[in-house]
Amino acid sequence: MPWWPLALSLGGLGVVLWSARQPVWAMAVVLALLPVAHLGVWSGWRQVDEFELLLTLVLLGATLHRWRAPRPAHPAGARGPAWWVYAMAALWCLSVGLAWWRADAGWPAWWEVFWGDEHSAAAPLRAARSTVWAVWACWCLWPWRAEREATRRLSWGMVTGLGCLCVTVFCERLQAVAWWDLASDYRTTGWFWEMNLGGGAIDAYLAMALPFAWWALTRARRPLGFAVGAVLLMASWYVVVTTYSRGILVVAVVLSAHAVWWQSRQSPSSRPAWWRPAWRGLCLLWLVEVVLLVSMSQLAGQRLAQSLDDTVGRWRHWQAITGLMTGPSDLWRGLGLGQVPVQYSQRHGHAELPGRTTWQPEGGHGPAHVELSGPATRLELAGRWAIMQRIQLPEGLGGHHVHVRLHGRVEHPLQVSVAVCQQHLLYPIDCAQMQASWQPGDAMITLDGPGFRGASPAVLKVSVSSVAGQLRLQQVQLWADGQAVPLQNANFSRGSAHWWPVSQSYFIPWHVDNLYLEVLVERGLPALLALAVLIVHGGWRAGRVPDGWPWAGAVLSIGLLGSLISVFEFTRVAFLLQFLLWWTSFSGDESRRLRA
């Protein structure tokens, strides 16, 4: 009998019980694990993820704590926000509910809850859940909203999460191109597997987490703590630069300059004698690091030089997205959650989908299988959509041949492509590619590839390289130099587990590339008004309470970066954004505001 279901059940129960005793610390742990609590590339879950399961367990425990040990609503004499802030928060939540209803997607099938794609009935629910989690978390922590220590604990959770991201990025680049190689055009993604369709999930997280790296330095009371904070700050800036994102680079520079200015205004009387020289030395070291990293990176310089052309392209993209709204009702109510990718790809030929992946359970369509399709009309998009599985090749196989056998069915002739690549998520380093023709009917074809010289671990990718082609893939087998390479869930009997879809160098249909336009088009003008008010008010209010300035920096940074990226298609990042908005809008005691 397998032991892991029992172990997971006991572990989940332990999380609930611990959260029932220490809800603030439990939420801090959730924030710490946010950058790594997504295992979609292994589990295959596309609509829910492991982070949501962890968050649900923690919130269940925190709910038990509120029922078991209620606290006063607010300390005597404390000043909360004005009534209109509550009204804006209520308006935001109401607009999310109406946008979900407007999507009219119905209830998903059980398997779509886990493995449905962006066009399934589960997609609007995923977009709405981030708001549900954020509101639930705010309600659970409501009794502690005026306690300075609660804010500090949550801040340390953000600091730890940033450290986890840095570790994953260093491991990623060490396997891909070596962490010191800045001449390569390889762009960092970390464990943000939801970037399989492109987007700026890691950029948005960095914008919200980087202020806490500066805050950790200000909290250091010993040289060792300051040194650890300095290492975290330097590592974070390495991650910022290696994303090669112009938006997060500019926002991070503005944010860091503001943090330095903020600290220069503080009184040195409460600092140890060593702190001021150490701070000045760190600021100089930080400036040198940024200049060196940007100057050594060829791609960063090229992308900065292309900013004007990119601005023109973005403006045309935004015009096309705005054109999806056809009347006043769309302006006020929005198109519905998750509707931009669906309608954009249908109405605009330049935004055509490169393909789709849909898992079908065993039943009327035969055995369990994955339906893998290519683009509908555009030949240049053929082969851009693939499913991949991370594999471990035997040692010493560099340069040896790989063989792949596919078992499935097609209704019309098509070309199928298979590749074994050294690849983390989006950007292949080295590939052995194969292609074969598939005739109508059930078949089992074998593809022989050239020598694969990349390092292990690697990925196996399968794609359709024909227009309007659809493949019912039932089983995949792989050999390397005559030795069978074990594949997980090779016959798709466990859904899409271990198979992860990925778009290759084409991400137009899925992203608005503007947070505010995304909210306007999908949720309507009232939601846009509520979001803008909450961002401005949250940044202003958090900056006026003790230990609130990193929260203010986080909210204002994502507000600034939101003019260049969209956020709400990423559940983890969308939850963090809304949690920051709730905490900055309602926590703290303005009667003890800073008087700098």
Can you summarize this structure?
This protein is α+β, with helices and mostly antiparallel strands. The chain has helices at residues 4-21, 23-33, 40-43, 50-68, 83-103, 112-115, 122-140, 148-176, 201-218, 223-242, 246-264, 275-296, 298-305, 307-322, 328-333, 339-347, 515-523, 525-542, 549-561, 571-586; strands at 357-360, 369-373, 385-391, 402-410, 414-423, 428-438, 441-448, 458-464, 470-480, 483-485, 500-503.
Strand content: 5-15%
* Mean pLDDT over all positions: 87
Question: In percent, how helical is the residue content?
Answer: 40-55%
The helix-and-strand class reads alpha+beta
The major beta sheet can be summarized as: 6 strands, antiparallel
What does this structure look like?
This protein has 596 residues and is α+β, with helices and mostly antiparallel strands. It is built from 20 helices and eleven strands. It has helices at residues 4-21, 23-33, 40-43, 50-68, 83-103, 112-115, 122-140, 148-176, 201-218, 223-242, 246-264, 275-296, 298-305, 307-322, 328-333, 339-347, 515-523, 525-542, 549-561, 571-586, and strands spanning 357-360, 369-373, 385-391, 402-410, 414-423, 428-438, 441-448, 458-464, 470-480, 483-485, 500-503. The strands form two sheets. Strands 1, 2, 4, 7, 9 and 10 form a six-stranded antiparallel beta sheet that branches. α1 crosses α4 (50-68), α5 runs antiparallel to α18 and α9 runs antiparallel to α10 (223-242).
